Amino acid sequence: MTVLPDDGLSLAAEFPDATHEQWQRLVEGVLRKSGKEHSGEAAEDALSTTLEDGLRTRPLYTARESAPDPGLPGFAPFVRGSRPAGGITSGWDVRQRHTALTEDAVLADLENGGTSLWLVVGEGGIPVSDLGRALDGVYLDLAPVVLDAGRDTEQAAEALLRLYAAKGVDAEAVRGGLGGDPLGYEARTGTPLDFAPYAALAARCAEQYPGLRALTVDALPYHEAGGSAAQELGASLATGVAYLRELTEAGLGIEQAAAQLEFRYAATADQFLTIAKLRAARRLWARVAEVCGAPAAGGQVQHAVTSPVMMTRRDPWVNMLRTTVATLAAGVGGAEAVTVLPFDHVLGLPDAFARRIARNTSSILIEESHLARVIDPAGGSWYVERLTDELAEAAWQFFRSVERDGGQAAVLRSGRIRTDLATTWAERSKRLAKRREPITGVSEFPLLAEKPVERTPAPEPPSGGLPRVRRDEAYEELRARSDAHLAATGARPRIYLATIGSPAAYTARATFAANLFQAGGIEPVTEGSFEDSGATEAVLCSSDALYAEQAGPTAESLRAAGARQVFLAGRGDYPGIDSYVFAGCDAVDVLSATLDRMGVS
Questions:
Q1: Which of these three, 364, 386, 404, is where a domain ends?
Q2: How many whole angstroms separate alpha carbon 52 and alpha carbon 227?
Q3: Strand residue runs (E) in 328-455
Q4: Closest CA to 100 of 126, 131, 62, 134
Q5: Do residue 279 and residue 172 come from a single domain?
Q6: Residues 286-324 pLDDT 10s
Q7: Domain membership flag for residue 55
Q8: What is the span of the domain harbouring residue 575?
Q9: How far apart are CA 81 and CA 48, in angstroms?
């Protein structure tokens, strides 16, 4: 660390340095006021947040936090980036994804900010025979193309290489990737593929096309099956190692084999975890290259994709905010290429407006926010460095467990990886159900009157292997039941909010209850009497003091008026109350049971 000379201009020069212990004592005082007695490290632990993979986010990070030296950008262990200059010359590669032949979509992307293409070809995408049509008008010497063709990779690669030749593109100028990923395809479909054609493509690229990579290590199947960040990294590491073994056995040198791999990761709206994940991935791959005897070949090439798991079908406009944060994190984390999935991605084929917003997300961050003008902008943050280290350790342990069980192919075929991911997703589902992990527009602040966004159905992706999960799936099922009830009866199921006292007494809990029940498609009614509301159930909303006085009599009067179930917003033990709803309750369970009682199937 460089020590700056004391120039007498420090604004804090006249104040004594605060110690960590002084800060802990202040925390103790705050906790004491809330009725919790903790001291020292325990006080700090009380403010910590537990993440997946056994990680914990502490409330304060200082210079005493230890983490390995991240090195320099472009040098092992590549934590700070695979290239010395990072993305400061042109930002990251804005890679747009296409799964169907949509009129002018490909050219519109390239003419308005996109810098490369990611084409899903074959099963679940553009037919191999239409690849020429998809690239009609594209300057292939300027726009790199990355294929995603699954079991049709060999045929799609041949078709693409013929196009390069037909258009007179010099082999030295070809850029992009052929997207071969047999283990990724097996993860998606459960169908194993022979590696020999992929090894032949890699050898051909190494000999003839120095700017073209034959293989992609796609970690999205594990992320989309509910895996944690460490599981995603560990699975990608095991896949990469498996490919290195196959390629070197086929006759490629370790440096040649490593140069044929590009890694694809999910970028989520948890910006710091995404930044740490990309940095940790580079450190882990550098370690693999070091063990293989080629430390200089350890610079991992990364393609980040905004997470499909976080995308919602209800209130899809909020997806723009999620993808913006994820794109920022991917850029700060050092990804060479970033794909922003359009906000209507989960609804079908994106329209022109959605594709434009997706392109512009990267363009604004690069050109207006100048996000790429600083190499590794998160580097040096005690929190980011510590999180990077802890995540790398957790991922390495998962990778080692996969290797002990025979490698990535073995754990896919034994079902072990499915079990691991399902366990992680089950724990996360509990947090989602209890709204500990809120979903804006779905579990928080839903809008029942919102008109659904409709899109042309997209091609069905390959399936049969690991499941694809989404954060909104439990709430989507509840909302679908409400929609069906609305279509059949002309009205949504309703619940009456019985407010007690003044607005100051009931507003907070009435707002909470309204949001909770709307998340399940149940319309809250606040005006008029219970008899006129059309509801069969009610929820009391007020302060604890007024509950003590009036909860029992109010519940009795509601029941006399025909209420079959009386909730109370809050905790306690009051006469006449059937159930309580409160922050941290299992919202999905409450809502599902309520719809059952209301006869909403």
A1: 404
A2: 10
A3: 337-339
A4: 126
A5: yes
A6: 999 999 999 999 999 999 999 999 999 999 999 999 999
A7: no
A8: 474-597
A9: 29
